[in-house]
User: Fold this.
Amino acid sequence: MTKSSSLNKVFADLPVTIFEAMSQAARDNAAINLGQGFPDDPGPEDIRRAAADASLNGYNQYPSMMGLPELRQAIATHYGHWHGLKLDPMSEVMVTSGGTEALTSAILAVVQPGDEVVCFQPVYDSYLPIIRQAGGIPRLVRLEPPHWRLNEDMLKSVFNSKTKAVLFNNPLNPSAVVYPRDDLELLARYCQEFDVIAICDEVWEHVTFDQHKHIPLITIPGMRERTIKVGSAGKIFSLTGWKIGFVCAAPPLLRVAAKVHQFLTFTTAPNLQAAVAYGLGKSDDYFLSMRNDLTRSRDRLTRGLESLGFPVLKSQGTYFLTVDLSPLGLNESDTEFCWRIVRDYKVAAIPVSAFYEQDPVTSVVRFCFAKKDETLDTALERLSDAVRGRKR
Assistant:
């Protein structure tokens, strides 16, 4: 029998993620799952048909490790159009099996034992284990509601001569902030002053609302050669199960990330790559319509929650909105609230404290609004007494 002490402690000691725990609780309680971030529609039919056609009539053997040339060209063209970012598709673009693999390839390409890596809490759950597996040391910065913004003091407290990289998620899940240029220029200044590589998780780049514009950090002056940009077709097209990620970086960075990718997944399903290449070439109207549809769903859930007495924090992007329970005087934490509503009201949500390793914010709950109207309306009906029933 294997001794537990011989297993990799970085992973062996990890608990079940809150996303899996709450999704299982949703299944066990026949609850509506507004916790995990996936839509409840099948995604754009024309893109799905393109994938089906590529399966039946296209190439189904190993594609290029770096990704189909037509997809790499489509990614470069897409970012050139939307962000004015000029990329060489053959030396600065790589396709991976999802955004998480893209982030893993980037982290393992950059971080060596003893390197410090700045991360902002709330933090996506894959970052810290992969940093530690590489031998890196996370330096955690605590962001706070309601604005979740960066400032000079917090960066000054963590950047130093040992800082090798910073992981930056924008738009930020779970707090649904789209960072303005001022914050990006501040972060860029510290990256340049301390010779730091920025690994930018920008998978929500197209999911922004109310005229908030996503600005890739790689486009800020001085950041072109020191930024690894990560994107996700799953988020862009609401096809989260497809797991098609993008890595964009200057050639010296991308070459090493590609060597990591070679030994993680090596390559990615060619039919899905072909369909994503088709999707990235769609007109601006598609992307603007997608945002409008999600804005309507966000506003529907926001109005409903506010009518029930929940203090909703404005969502600027992503599939999520957050509620700050602190003004309500409830005798419970965000985690206790989430377990209570999945059990008693048959609605699953995610406590934002799960995105913190140190000094968590314990009053904020995340709901996913990328659902059909009837799903949101039923969830709101079930939650109608959730606040009143727990006041002190």
About this structure: The two ends are 51 Å apart (CA to CA). The longest helix spans residues 284-307. The longest strand covers residues 163-169. The chain has a mean pLDDT of 95.
